[in-house]
Request: fold
Amino acid sequence: MTDNTVYNFGAGPAMLPHEVMQQVKDELLDWNGTGISVIEMSHRSKEFISITEEAEADLREILAIPENYKILYVPGGATMMMSAVPLNLLANGETADYLITGSWSKKAHKEAARLGNINIAADSADDNFYSIPPRENWAVSSDAAYLYYTDNETITGVEFGDIPDAGEVPLVCDMTSNFLSRPFDVSRYGIAFASAQKNFGPAGIACVIIHEDLIGRAGDKTPFLLDFKIYADNDSMFNTPPSFSWYMAGLIYKWIKRQGGVAAMDELAKQRSSRLYDFVDASEFYSNPIPERFRSRMNIPFILKDDELNATFLSEAKQNKLIELKGHRSVGGMRASIYNGMPMEGVDALISFMQHFEQQHG
Ligand SMILES: *Cc1c(COP(=O)(O)O)cnc(C)c1O
Reply:
């Protein structure tokens, strides 16, 4: 890091590891002696195919992805997956179950309910999305096509502590804001997907890990680019893929491997988040409303004692090179997003600034 380091606490696009950004800069104009940039490279060239093959092998290794799962790369991000999932998995007359635990699962439900029959199995809206309803209270269907949930709700900062038990029903998960931040048992899922711009690259691409049995079920009228089979049969290159985003995702996978894998990411995420939560909890000036067992390791909203101080907090933070701390408009206050790319020094710099601000204004 340089003297000019800015710590970006934005929820996404978000801060990426400095080391990877430096590598991208170094090879931007001449990738591996080809004399051209990845941006300019044919997605059919052997060079680009070597990039995607390495990304495939590295991701399989870091998440221990079983053979009977495919990895697809789709444009359009997690939001497009909110449409693609029901279009592929929900046939006429079937019902899918949704857990609504925040804004992103609410949005996914809204789209799915336009496209098919949906049962809301649980909804924490009455609790401001500050918690996850206990498993014994879920009203699941007897024969659901799938169960959908969002592992980490980016706006309120609520994260599942473990994988929900869906029995025999395929589990579909939006992992956009905590993908690659901890190990998970892929075999428990039908589909796990994530947009890149929080934990593993530039916007415009989503990684989809999907059980083979769920491919090839889309209805006849499903548009090409929403049909998982089109991606699976064409190595995610039915059309021109977001090649630069894909390349950068591959660099992040290698970086994660160098750091010791996703278990190491989890260790660091716990250290970063507990340092910040401990500070907020000990303070009389800052607070976080989420009960401890639901708290996210990735997105940490906090409110100041006096809302009138919000604007001053944000502008002084910015002068101290701590940016994008404004909370989501639906929650107010502040939010620090601290994904894999945020070093511990960034969290420490934020805490010292918060201490100083409290001394001045508390
Ligand atoms: C950011 C986010 C999305 C939206 O991702 P897009 O790439 O903008 O479609 C969806 N789900 C979660 C949990 C998110 O954090």
Observations:
- The chain has two domains: 43-259, 261-361.
- The first helix runs from residue 18 to 27.
- DSSP finds nine helices and 14 strands in the chain.
